[in-house]
Amino acid sequence: MTFSEQILYAISKPGKYGEMLKLKKGRSKLYVLVICLVLGIITFAVPVGALIASFGGFEKLFDKQLATLRYEDDQLKLDTKFSMKIEDATILINTDTASGKDETVKRDGMYLTVGSHRAVLLYTLSGKSYEYQSIALNTFLANGFNVSSLKNGIPFIYGYLVLMFVFTCAGFFVKYAICALFLVLCIKKYIEMREIKMSFGQMFMLCFYGESLGILISNCN
Predict the structure, then answer these.
(1) Using an 8 Å Cβ cutoff, are 141 and 122 in contact?
(2) With the C-alpha atoms ordered 217, 164, 132, 93, is the resulting torsion angle positive or negative?
(3) Cα–Cα distance between 159 and 43 in angstroms, integer?
């Protein structure tokens, strides 16, 4: 049985599950790994890649919209306002105020606002804002920081995104492994009553195969 057949049968032919459970453990582990990677690509890599492509990469973004950004005299300065929406969150840089907050944050959503002296993480609900965290810029920025400093950090940004992709995939594994374990508890007694010889690992894979179609549909949607 090829790997592509394994995926096809998992989502469309439950009658083949018995045959699939006889495959080597390595094939089962590979199946789980690939499903988690696919979910990470669909839900994280593709949206992030599309966002980066929309502004032509971080270097172009920094040169075009943050060219005048600098930190001097213990305050951040940017000649124009900067705003970027990432899914349900908005990054807002407005150095006309100390915390970066302006009329924009009155709309419901999550915000990271950066002002002349502070960076604030907050969310707004029904027109009322609630702060999660507020950090003074002088705790992590030094005088002389500018757009060139930002561009030097681009490799670290991509490294962070790769790390987030790994954590996203790992999160999917934990989520659906727990679901599969719950299903194992539901069917274990029935299997024992029918005197069907199945190891715990086989029962886990049986349930994971059964989840596959729902997993892919819900996340692709």
Answers:
(1) no
(2) negative
(3) 18
Give per-residue pLDDT as tens, 164-188: 999 999 999 999 999 999 999 999 8
Please give the Cα distance from 205 to 202 (Å, whole number): 5
Asked if 94 and 75 touch (Cβ cutoff 8 Å), the reply is no
Return mean pLDDT, the chain.
90
Q: Greatest CA separation found in the chain?
A: 77
The Cα–Cα gap between 96 and 40 comes to 38
- Separation of alpha carbons 51 and 8, rounded Å: 31
In the block, tokens 């929406």 appear at 85
Is pTM beyond 0.70? Reply is yes
Secondary structure element (H or E) that encloses residue 89, with its range: strand 89-93
CA distance 33 to 128: 42
Quote the pLDDT of residue 145.
92
List pLDDT tens digits, range 68-123: 999 998 899 999 999 988 877 889 999 999 988 887 888 888 999 999 999 999 98
Amino acid at 27: R
Residue 210 reports pLDDT greater than 90: yes
Q: What is the C-alpha to C-alpha distance for residues 22 and 65, in angstroms, rounded to an integer?
A: 57
Average pLDDT (11-23) is 90
In tens, the pLDDT along 71-85 reads 998 899 999 999 988
State how far the Cα of 141 lies from the Cα of 148, in Å rounded to an integer.
13
Going by DSSP bridges, is the β-strand pair 82-86/70-72 parallel, antiparallel, or unpaired?
A: unpaired
Bridge partner residues of 92 (DSSP): 83, 113
